[in-house]
Amino acid sequence: MQPSCRLRATSGSRSLRDCDEVLYGRDSFERMNVMATIDKVTDLAAVNETLLYYEKQGNGPALLLIAGSTGDAGNFTRAADLLADEFTVVTYDRRGNSRSPRPPGWRTTSVAEQADDAAALIRALDLAPAAIFGASTGGPIALDLMIRHPKLVRAGVLQEPSIFSALPDPMVALAPRRALIEEALPLKGPRGAVEALMRYLNDDGVFATIPPDILERMLGNADTILTIEGPGFAGWQPTTEQLAKLSVPITLVFADRTLPVYKEVTNWLAQHLKIEPVSVPGRHGFYYYRPHVLADVLRQSLKGSGATGATHVTLASA
Question: Is residue 225 part of a domain?
Answer without folding.
Answer: yes
